[in-house]
Fold this protein.
Amino acid sequence: MRKIVVFASGNGSNFTAIVEAVKSGKLQAEIVGLICDQPKAYVLQRANDENIPAAIFVRSEFSDKNAMETAMLNQLTEWHADWLVLAGYMRILGEVLLRAYPRHIINIHPSLLPKYRGKDAIGQAIAADAKIVGITIHYVDEGMDTGESIAQFMFEVKEGEDRDSVEHRIHALEHQKYPAVLQTLMEESK
Ligand code: GRF
């Protein structure tokens, strides 16, 4: 069974979707840990509720990104992590993790990349009056939401649809598709 570590900074609804997919057998993998950079993030509560070990790494406690990622790598090695799955992790990864996990770090972004990289992608799409919106699941590289795309899913914005509705549909799509794409990756890497 492949071992996954989820990286998250905030709410963690995708973390929960992945955990639920494992529980139901839709995702055949083991979630061996959560890495979080925000001590107050709600995702830590979710991990605790699921009895999934969590490790917190606060950037200000390390001299630089490499030092922080070296500490993370020690934890990942201890957990025997095979895959790193980013789900709302709000930091750019550096060379320590990228070199340790080539083509084994995945991210989900709430836009049809290369459109609307970075923060508040849904807000960016709405401000641009986008008619088609969606999500991208992609490999992680050293850029911000620039890695090779694995899969995209999209839908049409309804006439007069407000932000809350679009956001809700985007998140629902994420929760459905992220575990499914991860399962495909697990199967391909057997
Ligand atoms: C998601 O929209 C994801 O695409 C983006 O950050 C958000 C995380 O939401 N990278 P959550 O923390 O999983 O609820």
Summary: The pocket of 5-O-phosphono-beta-D-ribofuranosylamine is lined by residues 8, 10-15, 87-88, 108-110, 174 (CB under 6 Å). Residues 139 and 159 are 33 Å apart (CA to CA). Residues 163-188 form the longest helix (26 residues).
